[in-house]
UniProtKB/TrEMBL annotation:
It holds the Pfam family Hemerythrin. The keyword Endoplasmic reticulum does not apply. Keywords: Iron, Metal-binding. Belongs to the hemerythrin family. It comes from the Bacteria. It comes from Roseburia intestinalis. NCBIfam families: bact_hemeryth, hemeryth_dom. This is McHr.
Amino acid sequence: MYKFTDDYLIGIDEIDNEHRRLFQMINEAIDLSKESSDTSVISKNLVSGLKNYAATHFAHEEAYMEHIHDPELPIQKKEHEAFTKKINTFALDTSSPEAARQSLNDLLAYLARWLYRHILSSDTMIGKMFSISADEEDPFAFCEKYKTGVELIDTEHRRLFEIIHDTNDLIHAELLHDKYDEIMHLLVELKDYTEFHFRDEENLMERIHYPEISAQKRAHTAFVERLVEVDLTDLDEMDDNQQEYLIDLINFLSGWLINHILGSDKKIGEYMREHGIKEE
């Protein structure tokens, strides 16, 4: 069974309730598959129900994002289309009862994993993308408000900000031609260092028996998967939209990091101070 836990709440009631219902539909299909041998009927009902409900949910979500002028709306639409395509193109393997059951289970696992990742890496950012004002000295700088009070975490967060800062500078380097290879190199460095940092952070949380470690791990996995999906090979087809795409991308990455630090990582420092735990 797939649990919809509090770390999947994004704070928008309509969207949260619809996310909860999507998980409920997947779990109901799992229960039915255990009680009935007629996998084809379960599959047909699941696909039909998910197709209709997901379309309604995506429409609500996109309308809300459009209303608040959320800059990540184009990326959200693309991810919604991928989910819809998976549902629409699914064909149950009817070569044998065992194959049919495995085919359905694979679909259910994919749908749940997609929802988990999408909520944690994208939906949690709805309405939270920070805006960069012209008079802000350096919106990509690691400053006091981002400190957790844990030296290991703060040092590694500072390095993540530096990589994002360097990437942003490169994106805005108007006189630099053929800069996309260098941008891709920095994004690879960001992914690698992010994975390194998450391992360190999770090891620390395990050592101090941090109660929210499971939620942290899920968020980390979702963000890394989002980084892995970044592909600049499509930039040549974007023509005049290349710069806009890259700016939106770097704003998302920095926005997610800031939101995660303020909403999750600072609690690690608070927990350690409350329980008198010191770094080794």
